[in-house]
Write a structure and sequence with these properties.
Inositol_oxygenase; globular; about 0% strand; inositol oxygenase activity; oxidoreductase; mainly alpha; about 290 residues
Length: about 290
């Protein structure tokens, strides 16, 4: 299995956490519209370049190709711990602000849930939600792994961040793709919609047989901010999607705000998580 990382030209973020920091600032509760407008191309050149690439290259055809490549889960069998250790090899030595490993970030999310007495399935979801970022270790560029997700095959919403960059996407000139419903039926349900490719959809495929529906929505749509924060694309949603929306919203603050500077003590926490993983997952999962 290759662990090659995509070329720097396709990785404009200094590190993967730069996207998370952008999201935290953008969606922090109580921010005014004026403060939100600070998150533009001038203030965030790395993030802007990331989204320029993301919006240009995430075509419907690209999504279909990547789903065929990865959603068959042919990358081998790993336990949850092994997957987390594999993700730990995604290291950026240029980041001076944190020495936390990827696994420690996962533990911060799940431990915040545990501290609030969230159900055990949700704590498990918190730990696994970013494991799909191992796509970077398969050689995928950053813009194909993280970022706000959006439907392909229909008109773009102006509620997707940096919507002006969609003009460079070949799908922008496809008249069928640029109608309200595009290739979809009204209220068809999000499970019928081909979302832009990334770690959300990938980790959903890995986990879809093991966690409850609420958890699967958290995994699959936690980066679909245009929907769960701005109410866009409701015309594609069915009643199940709307019923699950509160679960996605409940998950989101843990994803955005759980990072801290205190390192979780893995040795102390491991017995709890050993038991938790045994409750929900087989010893080895297909990736």
């Amino acid at each position: 299995m290759s662990t090659a990382v995509a070329t720097p030209a396709h990785n404009p973020l200094g590190d993967m956490d730069e996207w998370d920091e952008f999201l935290e600032g953008r969606y922090k509760e109580g921010k005014t519209e004026t403060e939100f407008r600070q998150y533009d191309a001038e203030a965030n050149p790395g993030v802007a370049e990331f989204y320029r690439l993301n919006h240009q290259f995430q075509t419907h055809e690209y999504v279909l190709g990547k789903e065929k490549e990865y959603f068959g889960l042919k990358r081998g069998m790993k336990s949850i711990w092994e997957a987390a250790e594999f993700l730990n090899t995604l290291v950026d030595d240029s980041d001076p602000d944190t020495d936390l490993t990827q696994m420690e970030h996962l533990l911060q999310t799940s431990e915040a849930m545990r501290a609030n007495n969230e159900p055990r399935w949700m704590v498990a979801t918190g730990f696994v939600h970013d494991l799909g970022k191992c796509l970077c270790l398969y050689g995928e560029p950053q813009w194909g792994v993280v970022g706000d997700t959006f439907p392909t095959g229909c008109a773009y919403s102006d509620q997707v961040v940096f919507p002006e960059y969609f003009k460079a996407n070949p799908d922008y000139n496809n008249p069928v793709f640029q109608t309200k419903y595009g290739i979809y039926e009204p209220n068809c349900g999000l499970d019928k919609v081909k979302m832009s490719f990334g770690h959300d959809g990938y980790i959903y495929e890995v986990m879809k047989n093991y966690l409850p529906m609420e958890a699967l929505y958290m995994l699959r749509y936690h980066s679909f901010y245009a929907w769960h924060r701005h109410g866009a694309y409701d015309h594609l949603c069915n009643e199940q999607d709307r019923a699950m929306l509160p679960s996605v919203l409940k998950f989101n603050p843990y994803d955005l705000y759980s990072k801290g500077h205190t390192k979780p003590n893995l040795a102390e926490l491991k017995p709890y998580y050993d038991d938790l993983f045994a409750e929900f997952f087989p010893e080895k999962l297909a990736w």
